[in-house]
Design a protein that fits this description.
Length: 882
């Protein structure tokens, strides 16, 4: 055993179907035995293969993460605006912009650093101690010293330390949910499987790292360690998956690019025109700087961040914790929700729903009826179950199937403890994968009696039945299985002879169908998503029949939709999957790699995908999805650290809530972007028109900076607080490719910008006629400020702002108007500030002119809204905006 098998082992690691090979062949090929490796050979292999641990990710410096926050064009524009403010000597403006930059940068920096802990969470699945057979002796060693060829021992409660092929064992059942998504404990057997291409979840002879022993004991041959294990491959897959930018991030980047060209183009054109007209170059440079400042919406990133933070707070109150701010908006853009089944669409616990036998079928989800043939069946269910009552919680604990059987018996009036007193247990026959049955032996009226539980075909074969009855029961079993039920058969007989003789000539009692039923509120949430034209796709590790049955119960499988099994999915090429996925509603027995392929296929079709998962096997798909959503209660650390949103109540209903909040957030973002750009374009047009017309500069650079910080930002913040519109979940998802500055958006923005420009220049002209330049500039400054403020009503939700429903819907908007008005009055009449802004006090006549002109855009906009709402129920201007 001291000769090096390194070349052979390297080839075997990628070529041997471990689950379908004979264990003797594997021992020979790995140059090992049931006595395990000796210490020297194990040390050599440890040097060759490396430690049994996952490879940590390449560290990324905090500085790199910090610098990455400055790649946004909006951030670049803000830096430019801050530089301009410094050049102009406005330290307050530069400080305000700097504070916004610092806030956005710190939030992004903290969130990204936290996201990089996903791989650290994956490492937590390593086992600290393993029991290994070395030289025929069992010893405990650190699990990172395991090597291929080692023989390990496992008992109940152990976590499997490496991928291993089972050699021997008794009643072994594993919890494989974190790896495969299988909802029930999986029975394992040392017998080789005939199918080399069996799916991961179907490989009953294999034990995988990261899973845990539910019950039983086993001895197994280690075949893969470290990064070569299935969980290690998921870690590698997760490290290679790149997160996509959310729709909001993409839109803001596009917006920034357009803004750069708009700013440079307008500033250059106006400067050139002024120079051609003979205006001094220094004066035109001042105009160009003012135009550049006017074009940059300094408050946009701050308002966007605050709007997302408001949504985050609202979602947290409704049991959805957001780890990445932009995910709030992305969830509102979702067109497809891919979701796990167990515990998400279903209640997460097994219950008996149907019993059947030769005398009929009964629905037992509620109180079982008092039917004579049902009584012995319920008693047998209680006596063959190993579930126990937790004295602290009064909850049944144990194997999920046993819990379901005991719960059914108790609903039918059977007291398990009292029954055991009358029929004390004397012996039991444990379940084995070969026998496919277990039995409990009791004393009844001085006679020994056996109660048997197991697979329907097995119990039917053990029972005394004629051919007609046998055929009837087999057909009933098939019908239960087609409905996705896990079927358990029960029988009783006389307990005489050895164990084999006890399991013959039984009296058949009946079949019990068990399932994990749909969770409360799921059907209603699916209907809400359907009305919002959002597809829901179930991705489960359970059998296809189980997934289809739940989907039918929930109304997900309608005409034209189909279910796809894991093997068929694996055989599809990426191109075929993109074409096929359009009609698929249920995916069963799906591997982690294929979950990722499903997400990518949907995204290839232009879908915005939200992925809901809880296991290690979901991590790569959660990271790749536009929005990864993890379960907070039963979710693994890997899933929670990878996901952008964590549901603290593990309820599918919360997804509907989160989608609604996401839609509200994006609608509010569009509203304040519309408002900010209407105002900023109006400022640019005022300066541009005055320059082209050869008029004096209507506004100074400091006045524009004041407007952008005061008149723009506070009303925009109020728009970020706008409540949800009643029909928000009745609209289809917005086009993920549509830019914020769409054609309709630009038309509406231009419409209002031109009106604000017109009234501002009219006020400026009025002041110039009086022959007072300072007064004219002040009138233009005040008219523009108040016209922008009154424009707030046009930017709010559909319908006239003065309607009773809307007038008081947003208290922040109500507060913003007098607050900004007060600041504007101070800017004119408080001498220290007026001196900085170069404004002069206005007469009562001037104020009447200012107020009259400033109200025009609002009056026109509200008139259009009122007429349009009365005619069609929605205004064309606001339709253009949203």
């Amino acid at each position: 055993m001291n000769e090096s098998p390194s070349v052979v082992e390297t080839d075997l690691a990628t070529s041997i179907p471990w689950h379908s090979s004979e264990i003797d062949d594997l021992l020979q090929q790995l140059d090992s035995s049931v006595e395990g490796l000796d210490a020297d050979e194990a040390a050599l292999r440890l040097q060759r293969h490396g430690p049994n641990q996952l490879t940590p990710p390449k560290p990324v410096s905090a500085l790199s993460v910090l610098l990455a926050q400055f790649r946004s064009l909006i951030v670049v524009l803000l830096l430019g605006a801050a530089a301009v403010a410094l050049v102009l000597g406005d330290l307050l403006e530069a400080g305000a912009i700097g504070a916004v930059l610092a806030l956005n940068t710190l939030i992004g920096f903290a969130v990204e650093l936290r996201a990089r802990r996903a791989m650290d969470a994956l490492l937590s699945y390593e086992v600290l101690v393993a029991r290994v057979v070395r030289g025929g002796q069992v010893e405990s060693i650190s699990s990172d010293r395991l090597v291929p060829g080692d023989v390990i021992e496992l008992i109940e409660g152990d976590r499997v330390p490496a991928d291993a092929r089972m050699i021997s064992g008794a009643e072994l059942q594993l919890n494989e949910a974190p790896l495969t998504g299988e909802s029930l404990p999986v029975a394992k057997s040392p017998e080789r499987m005939d199918d080399p291409g069996a799916l991961l979840a179907d490989r009953r002879s294999m034990l995988y790292a990261g899973t845990s022993v539910y019950v039983g004991i086993a001895r197994a041959l280690v075949v893969e360690t470290g990064a070569d294990t299935q969980i290690g491959k998921i870690g590698t897959l997760l490290a290679t998956v790149e997160s996509r930018k959310t729709p909001l991030e993409v839109r803001l980047d596009r917006l920034g690019q357009r803004l750069v060209w708009l700013t440079l183009g307008v500033a250059a054109l106006v400067t050139l025109l002024g120079v051609v007209q003979g205006i001094p170059v220094g004066q035109m440079i001042e105009v160009g700087i003012a135009l550049a400042i006017a074009a940059v919406p300094e408050g946009l990133p701050a308002v966007a961040t605050i709007a997302l933070a408001v949504g985050l707070r609202r979602m947290a109150r409704r049991n959805a914790l957001v780890r990445r701010l932009s995910a709030v908006e992305a969830l509102g853009a979702t067109t497809v929700v891919c979701t796990d089944k167990t515990g998400t669409l279903t209640a997460g616990k097994m219950i008996a729903t149907t019993v059947g036998g030769l005398d009929g079928t009964i629905d037992v989800r509620d109180q079982p009826p008092e039917t004579p043939w049902l009584v012995p069946l319920l008693k047998a269910a209680a006596l063959t179950s190993r579930a126990t009552l937790d004295s602290h919680t009064d909850e049944l604990v144990g194997d999920p199937t046993d819990v379901a059987l005991t719960r059914l018996a108790m609903k039918g009036g059977v007291d398990p403890a009292e029954l055991l007193e009358r029929l004390p247990q004397t012996d039991e026959i444990p379940f084995s994968s070969k026998r496919m049955a277990s039995a409990s032996i009791h004393t009844r009226s001085g006679e020994a009696v056996v109660f048997v539980k197991g697979a329907p075909e097995t119990i039917i074969d053990m029972s005394v039945l004629d051919d007609g009855a046998r055929s009837q029961l087999l057909d009933l079993n098939s019908s239960f299985a087609e409905r996705g039920l896990r079927v358990i058969a029960l029988a009783e007989g006389c307990a005489e002879g050895d164990h084999d003789s006890l399991l013959r000539d039984l009296t058949f009692l009946g079949l019990i169908g068990i399932m994990d039923p749909p969770a409360e509120g799921v059907a209603a949430t699916l209907e809400i998503l359907r009305q919002a034209q959002i597809r829901t796709i179930m991705i489960t590790g359970d059998q296809q029949a189980t997934g289809e049955a739940i989907a039918r119960d929930l109304g997900m499988l309608d005409e034209g939709s189909e279910a796809l099994g894991g093997r068929e999915l694996a055989e599809l090429s990426d191109h075929d999957l993109v074409n096929r996925i359009e009609n698929v509603t249920v995916l069963s027995r799906v591997s982690p790699e294929d979950k990722l392929r499903v997400i990518e296929a949907l995204q290839e079709r232009g879908e915005i995908v939200a992925m809901i998962g809880d296991g290690v096997n979901d991590a790569a798909a959660l990271k790749r999805a536009d929005v990864g959503v993890a379960m907070g209660i039963r979710g693994t650390d890997v899933a929670k650290e990878t996901a952008a949103i964590v549901l603290t109540d593990d309820r599918f209903l919360t997804i509907g809530v989160a989608v609604e909040e996401g839609r509200v957030i994006f609608e509010n973002i569009r509203k304040f972007v519309f408002y900010l750009f209407s105002c900023n374009v109006a400022e640019v047009l005022v300066l541009f028109t005055a320059s082209v017309a050869g008029l004096p500069l209507p506004l100074t650079a400091l006045q524009i900076l004041w407007l952008n910080i005061v008149t723009d930002t506070f009303p925009a913040l109020a728009l970020a607080m706008e409540p949800a519109e009643p029909e928000i979940m009745s609209r289809p998802p917005r086009d993920p490719e549509a830019p914020i500055l769409s054609r309709r958006f630009l038309i509406a923005m231009g419409f209002y910008s031109l009106m604000i420009t017109a009234v501002t220049l009219t006020g400026f002209g009025y002041g110039l006629q009086a022959g007072d330049g300072s007064r004219a500039t002040t009138i233009a400054f005040m008219t523009l400020a108040l016209a922008q403020l009154f424009h707030l009503g046009n930017a709010r939700s559909r319908g006239p702002v003065l309607s009773p429903r809307r007038a008081f819907a947003n208290r922040w908007a109500l507060a913003a108007v007098p607050f900004v008005l007060g600041l504007q009055v101070i800017a004119v009449h408080w001498a220290p500030l007026a001196g900085v802004l170069r404004t002069v006090p206005l007469t009562s006549g001037d104020w009447l002119i200012v107020l009259g002109l400033a109200a025009v855009p609002a009056i026109v906009g509200q008139t259009v809204e009122a007429l349009s709402t009365g005619r069609r129920g929605r205004g064309p201007v606001q339709v253009a905006v949203s």
